[in-house]
Write a structure and sequence with these properties.
This protein is of the alpha+beta class. It is built from six helices and nine strands, in the order ββββββααββαβααα. It has a four-stranded antiparallel β-sheet with strand order 2-6-3-5, covered by helices on one side. A three-stranded antiparallel β-sheet has the order 4-8-7, with helices on one face. Strands 1-9 form a two-stranded antiparallel ribbon. Helix 4 packs antiparallel against helix 5. The termini are far apart. The N terminus is likely disordered.
Length: 167
């Protein structure tokens, strides 16, 4: 399956279509900036180019594969915080949005699940389980073992990082 860097020629960290938080606690966060909020240096501001649907970009990020890449590419200093610097963003791979041929109802449902989990502070595994099943396995035909292996990578890195914060 073809994967694309989150910062390829069609994605640039220069505008305010979406924001990737630079410092994260339990999990990394990519959010759409529909209200045009302005941020200081705590977020990578992103603009999607070339006809990329911002909601598909969110779906392409919130899955076990992208989270594994984020955990591998991000940095962790003291306190258990996952820090994602611009150089690390270049190495995070997400799904190719051009391969996400999903109907409007499925897209709406997936976005609703992700939004509900993030906005209400629920366990991110709920959203990842849903996206992995509906998109990675159901649409893109990834093997379930691949999804489980990527989740295991991310959870292992998360536990190691969060463990540093308790010392």
């Amino acid at each position: 399956m073809t994967m694309r860097s989150i910062r390829d020629s069609r994605l640039a960290l220069e505008d305010k279509t979406a924001c990737l938080l630079t410092g994260n606690n339990l999990y990394p966060k990519l959010v759409l900036n529909r209200c045009g909020a302005i941020s200081t240096g705590t977020m990578h501001r992103m603009k999607f180019r070339g006809g990329i649907d911002p909601e598909l970009a969110i779906i392409a990020y919130y899955n076990s594969i992208a989270f594994a890449f984020t955990g591998l590419c991000g940095r962790s200093y003291g306190g258990g915080v996952l820090e994602i610097l611009p150089k690390e963003v270049d190495n995070i791979h997400v799904l190719n949005t051009g391969l996400l041929n999903i109907n409007a109802e499925l897209k709406r449902n997936v976005i609703s699940v992700i939004d509900g989990v993030v906005r209400n502070g629920r366990n991110i595994d709920e959203a990842l389980d849903y996206v992995d099943a509906k998109i990675l396995v159901g649409v893109l035909r990834f093997d379930e073992d691949t999804c489980r292996a990527c989740r295991h990578i991310w959870k292992t890195l998360q536990a190691r990082r969060l463990g540093r914060g308790t010392r």
